[in-house]
Design brief:
Nucleotide-diphossugar_trans, three-stranded mixed beta sheet, Spore Coat Polysaccharide Biosynthesis Protein SpsA, Chain A, alpha/beta, 2 domains, eight-stranded mixed beta sheet, Glycosyltransferase, 12 helices
Length: 336
């Protein structure tokens, strides 16, 4: 057995009935010693619960979390192991998930929105390679492409099962509070398609906003300050709409004061669209620009909802039931 390489457990959350799991086939192609690698599929209906269940039975020194549709580059694990060996204080490494070039046009538009600085600020690094490799915060890391030291996660109790999504963000914050370091590598890539249609994309944005608000309620941090911009924007729009029928904004200076931020927002959006036009065809750009506005509104609305949702772990037997399967490394088909 080659003891020079740390052992690695790949953990993939999947639905109970799912038969085709893209991430499994991609994980079988990882360029890593076979005697130091295992692939675990955790089947269930609540990803935080599923990942915790797999984490408890995993044997690896490191765990590599993939979503069921993540397709990592074959060299990802070797790249991660090199980073961990270089810095003993490093606890987590991650990188972006990119939309495949052969994805349908609608998904390409969604990818432009997700990688937009105006739409998602520093978190756009989750969807596009941004800057050099560097120490980072939870803002740039995403759970569909994340390697961590298993013992560190166990010591912290795993993922908070009252949070979904944003369970990884809360855990990464906790790691940093203990002095652990997080690393962002723009070349540590997985390929993963965005949501396939507008309805599911909108629901995802609402869920992201709700998850961030729930995370902030559970664990307030200064790093979440930027996430208050979309809900405040939604509140601002609501006040404008409510005051318009009453004529509040039609009188002189009050009207200019009230609508000034909206004008600034329009200028920023136009400037950003022109910037995007340098890299994308115009039909894709104007659709993305409209969706950036929708993203701010949907995320903000989801955030307000998350301010009032109950924070409790999943209680139903169906939600907590998890089956963890160990998958053969070569020539394996994953069945139900």
């Amino acid at each position: 057995m080659n003891t020079a390489w740390p052992s690695v457990s790949v953990i993939i959350a999947a639905r109970p009935e799912q038969t085709e799991i893209r991430a499994v086939h991609a994980a079988q192609r990882l360029d890593y010693p076979r005697d130091r690698l295992e692939i675990l599929v955790a089947r269930g209906r609540q990803p935080s619960v599923q990942r915790n269940a797999a984490l408890r039975v995993a044997r690896g020194d490191l765990v590599y979390f993939l979503d069921d549709d993540s397709e990592p580059l074959p060299g990802n694990l070797q790249r991660a192991v090199t980073a961990f060996a270089r810095d003993p204080q490093l606890q987590v490494i991650g990188g972006p998930n990119l939309c495949p070039e052969d994805a349908p046009e609608q998904e390409q538009v969604f990818a432009v929105v997700l990688s937009s600085w105006l739409a998602f600020g520093p978190s756009r690094a989750r969807y596009a390679p941004v800057g050099p490799p560097r120490y980072t915060s939870e803002k740039t890391l995403i759970l569909c492409n994340l390697v961590a030291r298993r013992q560190t996660l166990l010591d912290l109790g795993g993922f908070d099962e009252t949070l979904y999504p944003n369970e990884e963000n809360a855990l990464l914050d906790a790691i940093q509070r203990r002095g652990g370091r997080l690393w962002y590598d723009p070349d540590f890539l997985v390929y993963r398609r965005p949501r396939p249609d507008l309805r599911r994309f909108a629901r995802m944005l609402l869920t992201y906003g709700r998850g961030r608000a729930e995370q902030f309620r559970r664990l307030p941090t200064a790093g979440s300050a930027l996430n208050f911009v979309p809900p405040l924007f939604v509140l601002y729009l609501g006040v404008l709409l409510a005051g318009a029928p009453l004529g509040f904004w039609s009188a002189g200076g009050w009207g200019r004061w009230a609508t000034g931020p909206l004008g600034l927002y329009a200028v920023l959006l136009l400037g950003h669209a022109i910037q995007l036009w340098r890299r994308h065809p115009w039909p894709r750009v104007w659709r993305a620009a409209l969706l950036i506005v929708a993203a701010h509104c949907l995320y903000g609305a989801g955030f307000w909802r998350g301010c009032f949702t109950p924070l409790r772990p999943p209680g139903s037997k169906t939600t907590r039931e998890v089956i963890v399967e160990s998958v053969p490394l070569e020539n394996a088909e994953v069945g139900a």
